[in-house]
Amino acid sequence: MKISIVVSIYNEQDSLTAFWEELKSIICNSSDIEYQIIWINDGSKDNSQKIINDIVLNDKKENYYFTTIEFSRNFGHEAAMIAGIDHSEGDAAICMDADLQHPPSQIPLMLKEFVHESEIVLMERIKRHDNGIFKNLMSKIFYVIFNKLTDGAFKKNSSDFFLISKRVIKLLQNNYREKNRFIRGYIQIIGFNKTTLSFEAPSRFAGETNYNFKSLFKLAINAFFVFSNKLLSISFYISLLFSLLSSIVIIYSIYQYFFGSKVPSGYTTLIIFNSMCFTILFFLIAILSFYFGKTADEIKNRPIYLIKNLSTTKLQKE
Fold first, then answer.
1. What H or E segment, with its residue span, contains residue 141?
2. Which of 164, 223, 215, 186 is nearest to 11 (CA)?
């Protein structure tokens, strides 16, 4: 059996060596499995690529070999994962990050489920040791809203740490090629035998997280617009409601002008109502703009990622 391990990297020079030592200690205990370790350097600006090159050059490669992918620039975590999946040669692929918050110690449990015919193994994070109250609250709110706006029941606290079988790999290689992606969502809606395992994410080994509030907000917005058209329906109903209210105000004003005892002052009411109408109008335009923008990205059909360097160091059979 061959297993591909897809490792996404962006400015992880401080944790890469420790990550590799821990990962190697796990995979070397499975002598009956051949591993393809796929390093994806997502345009790192530090010494991550040099560390990867040193590992590839100096490691003795027991029951594993390396595929190294270096992007021409930073294309984002989603692009890094799909690049690794595109170059996967294994019977299954495991996607994970190199910051040690996706513990390599969970890999044997994931493979056990795969051997028991689970084609997708989701890893649900039940606790993250360096998350504050605010991030935990935002995560809960995201999944509540996300599940309300989409037709699928998505696992809360699901992560980009997962295993997919060869059949799912081929599906992602040939389909779901949108420029705006949410892979952890895709693998939850495509069906097949699925298992969910729980894990606790330790604190980052070193460095700062690459997911700040802006990045998380962008990811959330992208997920909403990739998986749901309900915002368009909501926009329609809001527009219908305010059209009705506007009609009532217009009819009332005309009636008072012709048949009322006096023309109502109504200045404050009209100002408030107009302000609300314009606020709602701009909100609806913003929603439509997001959809138009996402559609424009797909029409342009630009590549999901660009590779600067690609190399494979094959396992030397004795």
1. helix 133-149
2. 215
